[in-house]
Specification:
Length: 191
């Protein structure tokens, strides 16, 4: 094998990338089911987004595994929500939210906030911040933030939030969602 053999081995991938760039933006690349299969293999932390509906004053919440950190300075995070979500009309009007990051013993809470057609807060222990936003008691950590932007992307909305306050005093392991099931990291999960 010659010294330049690895470079030749990479050429097919580079040509594949060039072919990919020539595709038109509206050309579908993966079916929705194929795309979902990809992300089922990607473990994600579980959060419940909570807010006060500015139209009614009622608490609103939904489960999200799409929360990401966007920037540390300023501190900005983002999550997505389906356009068809029953929580979307309230979120579309809200100026602030709380992102409740769940711990390994809170799979039932995640499932509750992912269930349609129920009062998700019934029997759920929570407190309200001064602005009315609910915080779920027992969350591993939470972030209170101001909604910066709502960007329509496909059949969903990407919501960016500037972090204003947080509480990281609760100890424990995070709740993780992987391949349609809740799981937790082991006690010694560092490599």
């Amino acid at each position: 094998m010659t010294a330049d053999a690895p470079a030749r081995a990479q050429r097919p991938a580079a040509h594949a990338d060039a072919d990919h760039r020539r595709r038109t933006p509206d050309e579908p690349h993966l079916s929705p089911e194929e795309y979902k299969r990809v992300f089922r293999r990607h473990p994600a932390g579980v959060a419940v987004i909570t807010l006060e509906d500015p139209r009614t004053g009622q608490p609103v919440g939904f489960t999200a595994t799409s929360v990401i950190s966007v920037s540390a300075a300023p501190p900005v995070l983002a999550f997505s929500i389906a356009s068809t979500s029953s929580s979307w009309p309230a979120l579309a009007a809200a100026t602030t939210v709380v992102v409740n990051f769940l711990g390994h013993g809170q799979a039932d809470l995640s499932a509750r906030f992912a269930t349609h057609g129920i009062d998700r807060f019934a029997g759920t222990e929570h407190v309200r911040l001064a602005g009315g936003e609910p915080v779920l008691v027992g969350s591993l950590t939470w972030v209170h933030g101001r909604v910066l932007d709502r960007i329509t992307v496909g059949d969903s909305h990407l919501v960016t939030v500037q972090a204003l306050a947080s509480d990281t005093s609760t100890q424990g392991a995070p709740l993780v969602y992987h391949d349609r099931a809740y799981t937790q990291l082991g006690d010694h999960y560092e490599i």
